[in-house]
Design goal:
There is one protein chain. The protein is α+β, with helices and mostly antiparallel strands. The chain has four domains: 151 residues, NADH-ubiquinone oxidoreductase 51kDa subunit (Rossmann fold), CATH 3.40.50; 79 residues, Ubiquitin-like (UB roll) (Roll), CATH 3.10.20; 115 residues, no CATH class; 65 residues, OB fold (Dihydrolipoamide Acetyltransferase, E2P) (Beta Barrel). 33% of the residues lie in helices and 19% in strands. The chain is built from 18 helices and 20 strands. A five-stranded mixed beta sheet has the order 8-7-11-9-10, with helices on both faces. A four-stranded parallel beta sheet has the order 5-4-3-6, with helices on both faces. It has a four-stranded antiparallel beta sheet with strand order 14-20-19-16, with no helix packed on it.
């Protein structure tokens, strides 16, 4: 069975896209280099880093399957420094395979481990390809380490590793069932430490989006960051877009501090957040076209000296442009990478300090007086919720069609929903055995499952 077929049957998602579709697209492009992205790129998020160290066999096997399907001659695993734990685990398995005593599926050659600077937003695919330089190639395919490990493990995608960090009693990376609620996941980490008015940010503290407490974990979920409901981070995250625009129009001085740290701008992608903010105030619309290069990393927010949030406005401009197909078809401005790109990039440590994370350390005022928090550890303790609500749409595409009814008993790994023929969809499986409760079809639909 091909890797793409196995990924489809398992229902594996890589980012927002089905893994099998990414593999088929790469095969059509005839890529010869596969890059396993084991970078997290955000403060206090360590999902890929810890997975690479805890499950090296699955990651290596999944990478080998992808390489075989694409006919790739090289495989790279990108790790964020310091990566001694993951390097040791992966290199040991590769050495065993070369000696003929390795685990089944682990290749004996053709895979290289690459340690890169732990840059904020360094897990973005374009950033990763640029960082690899001559070690990769421009048309290489970048696949997530979590998705590749799921492929290498075999069987349906039922569980997902998630970093739970911030104001929780036991921060860590835990493997949880798909469909488990945000509140239940946080309770499994010992609960919150900031009182009842807390907020969970999906994706981490840097560019995370607010989540309701009953929001289900999806296959693409990578992190939950908990903060106090009255914190500055929560306030800025919840600020309405109209208020952000009014603040920017009155306070933006076009100092370009946001553009100086913008990853696409440093790559020469033609994005200048400070010019977009000025354009939204009535200037020419030419700089606004660069908004289409925005990855939503929110580093511009950290750089702004007056506390504005450019990234939300830039993303809003990009959405408006995509609604106008004629503008999207126009050629985007581009150029060469900035000569000081390496020096201007923010590390995850600096990003953490600018967010005010970490414990007080030493004497002084400002970010230098704090010690940045260490990456959360891998927590192997089992997570067994009594009830979950598995979403029918966890990817870019169309929802799966439920094939179960309330009251039915389902075994672990059996299908709860099927993709309709000819649609960009995936099968949805039961993370544990139990009885089906509520079944709601559609884009926001779900299947509720009660553990037996």
């Amino acid at each position: 069975m091909t890797a793409s077929r196995a990924a489809f049957l398992a229902g594996i998602v890589d980012g927002a896209r089905p893994l099998h579709q990414r593999l088929l697209d790469a095969k059509a492009r005839r890529v010869r280099v596969v890059i396993a992205n084991a970078l997290d790129g955000a403060p206090e998020v360590a999902t890929a880093r810890r997975l690479a160290a805890a499950r090296p066999v699955e990651l290596l096997a999944g990478l080998a399957l992808a390489m075989r399907e694409l006919g790739a001659t090289r495989g790279l695993i990108a790790l964020a420094a310091p990566a001694a734990e993951a390097q040791h685990a992966l290199a040991g398995r590769l050495t065993d395979a070369a000696r003929g005593v390795g685990a089944a599926g682990v290749p004996s050659s053709g895979i290289e481990l690459v340690e890169l600077a732990d840059a904020a937003a360094g897990n973005d695919e374009a950033e990763l390809v640029a960082d690899l330089g001559d070690r990769g190639e421009p048309d290489a395919v970048v696949l997530g380490a979590v998705a590749l490990a799921a492929l290498g493990a075999g069987g349906p995608a039922l569980m997902v590793p998630v970093t739970i960090a911030g104001a929780v009693l036991r921060p860590g990376v835990r493997v949880v069932p798909v469909g488990m609620s945000v509140e239940d996941v946080i309770d499994a980490a010992g609960g919150v430490t900031v009182g009842p008015a807390w907020l969970a940010l999906g994706g981490g503290p840097l560019a995370g989006r607010p989540l309701d407490r009953d929001t289900p974990i999806e296959l693409r979920t990578r992190a939950l960051f908990v903060t106090a409901g009255d914190s500055d981070l929560a306030r800025r995250t919840r600020l309405p877009l109209a208020d952000r625009l009014r603040q920017s129009l009155s306070a933006c001085e076009a100092c370009a501090a946001c553009t100086d740290v913008c990853p696409p701008a440093l790559r020469g992608a033609g994005l200048a957040p400070h010019l977009i903010l000025r354009a939204l105030g009535g200037a020419t619309d030419q700089p606004v076209l660069g908004a289409l290069a925005c990855t939503g990393c929110a580093l511009c927010d950290l750089a702004c000296p007056v506390g504005l949030a450019p990234h939300a406005l830039v993303l809003a401009a990009a959405r408006a442009l995509r609604d106008r197909a004629a503008d999207v078809d126009r050629e985007l401005p581009s150029g060469t990478p900035h000569p000081l790109r390496a020096e201007r990039r923010l590390s995850t440590r600096v990003a953490a300090l600018r967010l005010g994370l970490g414990a007080p350390h030493g004497v002084g005022v400002g970010v230098d007086a704090r010690e940045s928090p260490p990456p959360p550890p891998w927590d192997p303790a089992p997570v067994e919720p009594a009830r979950i609500s598995v979403p029918l749409l966890q990817w870019t595409g169309v929802p799966a069609r439920p094939v179960v009814a309330p009251g039915m008993y389902v075994a672990r790994g059996s299908r709860l929903a099927e993709p309709d023929a000819g649609t960009l969809s995936l099968p949805v499986h039961a993370p544990f055995a139990g009885f089906v409760g509520e079944v709601v079809p559609g884009r926001t639909g779900f299947v509720t499952l009660h553990r037996t």
